[in-house]
Structure formats: C-alpha cells, structure tokens
Amino acid sequence: MPFAVAGAAVSIGAGLIGSQMQQNAIKSGQSAANQAIQQGVQTATNQLSPWATSGQPANADQADLLGLNGQPAADAAMAKFQQSPGYNFQMQQGLRGIDAGAASQGILRSGATIKAEETFGQGLANQDFGNYWNRLQQLSGSGLTAASGIANAATGGAQQIASTDTSAAAAQAKIIGNEASSIGTAANGLFNNQSFQSYLGGLGGSGGGSIYQPNAGLGGLY
Question: Counting beta carbons within 10 angstroms of the beta carbon of residue 65, is it exposed (0 to 12), middle (13 to 18) or buried (19 or more)?
C-alpha cells in the first residue's frame, strides 16, 4: 500500500476521533448546563412554595366572605373572622368595659346594657372587618406573587434548557458537517494523487504490478 493511502487513512481516522471527542464534550457541557438550570428552578420553587401555599386559603376566605361559594361558606368565613385573635380580644375588652360601667350603676343586666353591647359589637365588626380583609388581601397577594415567581422560574428554565439543547444540536451538526467535508477533501486528494492512481492501475491489471492474471501459464490452450 503506498504512503498516500496510509497517510489519508491516518488523517481520516484522526479527524473522526477528534470529531467524536468534540461531540462528547458538547454533550457533557449540555448535560451539566441543563442540570444546573433544573436545580435553579427547583431551588426557586422550594423557596417560594410556602408563600404560594399560605396565600391559597387567604384567597379562599375572601371568596367565601364575598358569598361566591354559597351562604354556608360565607357564614363559616365570617365566624372565622369573629374568632380571629385581633377581633376577639377587642370584643372581650369592650364588653368588659361596658359591663363594668353598667355594674357600677347597678344596671348590669338591663336592656340598656344589652343594647350597648350589641351596638359595640356591630361597630367593632364594621371597623375591624376592613382590617381583617386587608390582612387577607396582603397574604393572598403574597401568594399570587410567589406563584407567579414559580411559574416564571419554570418557564424561564424550560426556555434556557431548550436554548441549550438547540445550541448543542447546532454545534454537533457543524462538527459532523466539517467531518464529512474533511473526509471528502481527503478522499478527493487521495484519488487525485498520482502515486495512488498508479497503484490502482496496477491492481486493475493494466501494468506489471498486477496481482492476478487469469491466463498465465496456460500456453495455447486458449
């Protein structure tokens, strides 16, 4: 085999090995990048999930208080408001004050005292309900913001992974294209090499270097 053939074989082999090494490096980098993106998305989700979770019951209570889920749900939500620490404390303190004043006058269980207690309770409910609603709104809003953050992290992560995969595929396609072009160039140069052409001609029986002559040594039999 002439040196031209050996040289071309070495060149093509080296090119194929180098191409494979490049593709392996791209795949490794692609995998590491995607793993880092997924970890980032998971970290964001873990950090925001408690806020998103606590915002859900606050939003449900608002809907119940507005009567969107029926009267039983509205009644239960109102009872929850009346049992809330802030409202309950103010109610107890106010009623104690009214009872103390009535007791000092000897009218603790009078109709006037009961009326005063009812009026106080209604006024406190109207006053504190707005504060209670605002607290629910803040908690619900925090949950919405957290949920949006989780959604944005997931969407952004998916886009980054898609971009990484696309870039890796484009890089691999370029390497394969360059590999095919290099092989074609090497083959073209080889077949245009004069020594290789002479070698092929000898294999074909056109010269003295033929390795197979079917009629040799048969005399005049044919």
Answer: buried
Domain residue spans of the chain: 3-203
123 burial level (CB within 10 Å; 0-12, 13-18, 19+): exposed
201 vs 110: CA distance, rounded Å? 129
Joined together, the tokens standing for residue 102 give 């009535």
**Taking the model in full, what pTM does it have?**
0.51
pLDDT band at 61, cuts 50/70/90? very high
- Cβ atoms of 117 and 95 within 8 Å: the answer is yes
User: 85: buried, middle or exposed (CB in 10 Å: 19+, 13-18, 0-12)?
Assistant: exposed
Q: How far apart are CA 9 and CA 193, in angstroms?
A: 14
Q: Does the pLDDT at position 33 exceed 70?
A: yes
